[in-house]
C-alpha cells in the first residue's frame, strides 16, 4: 500500500508521516530530506546552487542514504550523519533552487520509486501524489497558514538544538517565498493532486491530524 502526503513547508507532513508509519509498521520516506541532502552536498562542494551538472556529479560521489536508527530517520552523505545539517536556515533558504533542477528531480524521483518498491510505504514531499507515486492508494494534501508554519519551524529548530537568529516574522517571509518558488517551478510544482484529500492543520493538534489520515488509510484498507 502506498500513502502520499504532500503540502508546503512546515505543514506537518514529516511529523505525522513518521507517527503513522510507526503505528502501521509502514516504511517512511522523507523526500524533502533527500533534496535538503542534495543542497548540503552542493554547499560542501562549494558549488553554485544552480550548477546542475556538477551537483549531479557531487551527489553521485557522496551519495545519499536514509537509515532508521532507534525509530528515527537519519540522513547520511559521504559517510557522515547530516540529519541536523539539512535543517539549518542556510539549507532551508536554498533547497528550493536545488530541488527545481530537472535532472536532480529526475534522479531523486527514481530513487524514491525504488525505495517504495513493493512494500507498504508512506512518503511525504511536494509532488508525491502528482509525480512520484501518482497511483498511490491514499493521497493527502496538508495545508496551514504561513504564520502557524513559521511558529512550528522555529519550535522545531529549538527542539533540534539548531541555533537561529531569525524571528517568526523572518521565517514566515521565508516560508511564503518558498511556497511561491515551489508552486511556480516548471518541473513537478507543488500542487494538490485531483484525487487528494486536503487537510488544513492550522488549528489542529498533531494527534487530530494523525487520526484524520489514519481514518482515510483504514477506509482504503477495508477495500483491499
UniProtKB/TrEMBL annotation:
Record's catalysed reaction(s): dCMP + ATP = dCDP + ADP; CMP + ATP = CDP + ADP
Sites where the protein binds ATP: 7-15
Keywords: ATP-binding, Cytoplasm, Kinase, Nucleotide-binding, Transferase
GO cellular component terms, semicolon-separated: cytosol
Protein's cellular compartments: Cytoplasm
Pfam families listed in its UniProt record: Cytidylate_kin (PF02224)
Annotated GO MF terms: ATP binding; CMP kinase activity; dCMP kinase activity
Protein EC: 2.7.4.25
Main location: cytoplasm
Family per similarity comment: Belongs to the cytidylate kinase family. Type 1 subfamily.
Protein known as: Cytidylate kinase
Gene from which the chain derives: cmk
